[in-house]
Write a structure and sequence with these properties.
6-stranded parallel sheet, about 30% strand, alpha/beta, homodimer, 7-stranded mixed sheet, about 25% helix
Chain lengths: ~325, ~325
């Protein structure tokens, strides 16, 4: 079957005769119908996580082998595959399981392929009201909605989302459903019209008031995002960091201490609330799709996803 | 009167005929009997805060002019002088007052002088059981004890204090009074014997278990303290940053996001609990005094405070 594979130093390659993965006990075999390219995938192509294998962790597909309640169903899947036995799993932090593999990110082949395997317990059936193109956003929307778990969002709190890329526009749409006063701060005006269509208040980051925000969510995906957030956050306020990137950021941490700011790292979120948000129709994801490429054009698709101005680029296996 | 003054590029100088400061309305005139040199003072001599004037913010002294309840009393003083009117003061964050001056740090002459002035409301009378040499630690101990306000300290939680300098040894002594399991992690074995005398469990930082600590308090005062703390902190754990230093730290922030760690900046703390801690006799500060210099030898004293292995260096005005 077709699959994209990555390893260093060969880079990303299209494998036309990749073996169909064989589900282990407790796993489902899923035929991928649509996969999404995420910033993390682009970081992986730069060496992040030293990953080798099939990348990709955003997908929707149909279960071809698995337990009866899933067989033939359209599913999305949580990406952390966990042991349920280690200290962190027992502490209620399964997404931090010390033995975990992560779909397309760590120790497990991912979704840029015609087929993938995943523990059946990770799979969630997609309600009929949600299209494939919407469902493929579940993982990213779950990560976006997880910001609500990181920090209390008081009514009337001033909240800034920094960055209006794929993740920033989802975080902003989720926060716009809460009673905070929300600004989406952007470095170029490129996304202003799209943000406005999504009902968001867009403003230039450079002229935003220093120290004015109770909560700043960094969705820039850039090394200098924390420094920008520290400038915007009020003393005693909170910064939620959503960005991961390979390499070191040079940042003056004195404002963090002097202003007694909290910085909270936030990664994956639970899928059930994300599917519920999608089913409400109040989170607009179709507007975020830049292009759909056939899986065989994967290298071009990943290049397109990394180009300035790109939003979500999707991959559709030919078999679907 | 004698005072040490700092300005760039002249550097630190001894002024022998510095004018005695004149208290404004609501302020007390305090004759300094002992002052302490802090890491922040050393940073100021490197340009931190662009401060110009008399540095020094740790002191004990006697009120010569001021309200009747303070006159003739031995006092210590909170260093943030605030407006009580701005949004941050009204929010209950007076130490972050936007109009604040800070004794010897920002916009206000400090304690490396025979006299200083400070709002009377900032002054706290020192109980007789506390010696001058102990009282001069009140400000630093207040900052150390403020760690308890930054993060919940569950019984049996594994807590690491990173660094065994002036601040680290006070933070560790405060945390040792709570029911956590505490390790003080040090980069050289230099402080091992002193820590053990203080009843602390000392261990080398380099071989401490990665991801083993629920809470890590960075008291290294070094640019790479956060990176070390990120290595030690468990997923979902908390890092309290106590260090300020001038300049940018190069740090890989990916572990902060991937491990969903919280980083909490912590600066000044309230004086009343610190005086209560000193009065119990359970916090040992006399052991932390490296040397006492006359004020006129201030430049040598600041050099000594910055030398490797130095703990607290004190300045005693000749008039006291």
């Amino acid at each position: 079957v077709f699959a994209l594979t990555y390893s260093a130093p060969a880079g990303l390659q299209l494998a036309r005769q990749h073996p169909t993965p064989v589900p282990a006990s407790g796993e489902a075999l899923i035929r991928v119908t649509l996969a999404g390219i995420c910033a993390t995938d682009l970081e992986i192509l730069r060496g992040y996580m030293q990953f080798a294998g099939v990348p990709g962790h955003e997908f929707v597909g149909v279960v071809e082998q698995g337990p009866p309640h899933l067989r033939g169903q359209r599913v999305v899947g949580e990406i952390n595959c966990v042991c349920h036995a280690c200290a962190l799993c027992r502490r209620g932090l399964p997404t931090h399981c010390r033995q975990r593999t992560v779909l397309g990110i760590a120790g497990r082949d991912g979704a840029f392929a015609e087929y993938l395997v995943l523990p059946a317990e990770n799979c969630h059936v997609v309600p009929a009201a949600i299209t494939d193109q919407q469902a493929v956003f579940t993982e990213l929307l779950a990560a976006a909605a997880h910001v609500r778990d990181a920090v209390p969002l008081e009514p009337e709190a001033r909240v800034a989302v920094l960055g209006a890329g794929r993740l920033g526009l989802l975080v902003a749409q989720v926060l716009a459903l809460t009673p905070v006063r929300l600004d989406v701060l952007i470095r170029s005006l490129q996304r202003e019209a799209l943000g406005a269509r999504l009902g968001l208040h867009m403003a230039p980051a450079a002229t935003a008031d220093a120290g004015a925000y109770d909560v700043v969510v960094d969705c820039t995906g850039a090394a200098d995002g924390l420094a920008a957030a520290l400038r915007l956050c009020r003393p005693g306020g909170a910064i939620v960091l959503k960005s991961t990137y390979a390499g070191a950021a040079g940042v003056d941490l004195a404002p963090l201490v002097v202003n007694e700011v909290r910085v909270i790292g936030s990664r994956c979120g639970p899928f059930v609330p994300a599917l519920e948000l999608l089913a409400t129709g109040r989170i607009h994801v179709d507007e975020l799709v830049s292009a759909v490429y056939p899986l065989a054009a994967g290298p071009a698709a990943l290049a397109a996803a990394g180009a300035p101005g790109a939003l979500k680029v999707l991959l559709r296996p030919e078999s679907s």
